[in-house]
Amino acid sequence: MPVTLRLNLPAGRYHATPWGRHVNEGVPEWPPAPWRLLRALVAVWKRTCPELSESQVRRVLEQLLPPPSFQLPASQVAHTRHYMPRGKTGPDERTLVFDTFVAINRDEPLVIGWPDAELPPSDLTVLTQLVANMTSLGRAESWAQVELSASMPDRWNCLPAKASTPNPIAVFCPDPATAFGSEHYPAHTLKMVKKGLKPGDLLFDSPRWHLCLDTQTIHDRQWPQVPGAKWVNYSIRPTHPEPNPRATVPNRLPPTFVRFALDGPVLPLVTETIRLAEQVRVQLLSRCKWLYSPKDPRLAVADLPTIAPAFWGKDEDRRPLTGHRHAYFLPVDEDDDGAIDHVAVYAPMGLSPLELQAVDLLRRLRYGDHDLSLVVVGRGVPEDFARSRLLGPAMTWESATPFVVTRHLKRRGRKRDPLEWTQGPDGHAAFVREVLKEELEHRAELDPDKFGDVEIEPLDRREIGPRHIRPLEFYLSRLKEGGDGERRSRGGFRIRFPHPVSGPIALGHSCHFGLGLFLPLPPT
User: Superkingdom, according to UniProt (predicted)?
Assistant: First the structure.
């Protein structure tokens, strides 16, 4: 009969690091790897059920080798940070360790199924005994209660992906052809034989299966591929039909702010702000299309204003939305080292349910030479993110990326700009300052309590930010056809408000893609 396992996580957390990743990369394993599950069953057998024979356990595990189907509960990636004693240079030295996990509702089970498995009643008894003795899956703090279920879900929401599925998730699975092989199992060395070991003696308290290879041996041998295992691409999709993206929950405001943490071998420089922001938008829109129509993700542009209005930022006639209520994609250098380490998505109009699901699916971003991992730090409203540098509140805000003018100099006509702006020694800076003033006046019409009665002053130096980067070093155009950001005037400024205001504050040309971003200065 088919095999279905129900896993309950009493702590509401699943702690596990994917194979081949470092724990400090902040990338959790989800769904749980079948390779990990079968190795856990072997461990349970040897630790708590020694009366079971090797042939009994092998018959059970052989039916669980094919890639299973999953019914995943709603989940959210989160992490905690711990400063652990290191002790190399002294007792006070600390090293930062990330504990990333998948948070779920502790009352919702995770279901794993093998619909094509055929286990006779005697083997089902063996499997029932094994799973009843399993107390954790993943790291030790990932407590688990596992039981054999007599029923299967009506619909699985995580299945092996087809070749045409976009953005698949790689899951580490046992290889049915080699999992019980032994050619790569470590042999006895001459030194071991001299100590009295016979060729048939086991090195470990486990059968000579690739499935039972210890992690230390795998790392020491540096095999390009783990014997007995393989990667299988999976796709995750919603179990239930998506609600109307325009519908709102009564008496509950939709989330307007999402914060990602970035990690990777090399983080992008702040000069790449607009390029990174554009790629984040492209990938989020791609996931919205796939969620809305998994069978045909080539969604018409005409559907985007309905399913992803904040991300798309245009109406049904492809005209940009006014009022700056659609999404800002704001890369930020939080630690002032010159590299982007966080990305915020801020949409005053609110994010639709489909857009929020797309946020959860964005875990990896590749562009140019960068291969980045993204972790959702949180989502909600700006008031929920007191520690984000984007939000303040503060009275003084300073340019973190260049402010780029939204218009060109008017040299003719009744509304032409002063002649000294084109010929005077400081004319360029005066023109950029005037456009910034116009932009603030326009924003004051939309939000007078925040942008009214401000003072503007150019930065004392020609560079921007604590790393003193010149504005001309930044990319100023998106990759779309017709971008002219490099031909526009730009500069850095300090804005003073009469009272503390909250951010984010981004103004000017391409402000929805991180240009013209201002960060608060601490009070002196």
Answer: Bacteria
Query: What pLDDT, in 10s, does the model give residues 123-173?
Result: 999 999 999 999 999 998 999 999 998 888 888 989 999 887 877 899 999
| Token pair 């990690």: residue | 263
> What are 236's strand-pairing partners?
158
| Position 112 pLDDT exceeds 70 | yes
Hey, what amino acid is at 68?
A: P
Q: How far apart are CA 279 and CA 247, in angstroms?
A: 28
Q: Largest alpha-carbon pair distance within the chain? A: 101
Q: What is the mean pLDDT of residues 218-232?
A: 89
Q: Is the peptide bond before 504 cis (omega within 30 degrees of 0)?
A: yes
Q: Is the peptide bond before 31 cis (omega within 30 degrees of 0)?
A: yes
- Whether the CB-CB separation of 351 and 333 falls below 8 Å is answered with no
- Written in H, E and C, the secondary structure of 85-99 is ECCCCCCCCEEEEEE
The Cα 282–Cα 476 span in angstroms is 18
- Distance between CA 267 and CA 372 in Å, rounded? 7
Rounded CA-CA distance 506/497 in Å is 15
Is the pTM higher than 0.85? no
E strands of 9-57, at which residues?
13-14
Find, among 270, 330, 266, the residue nearest to 463 by Cα.
270
- Strand, helix or coil for residue 302: helix
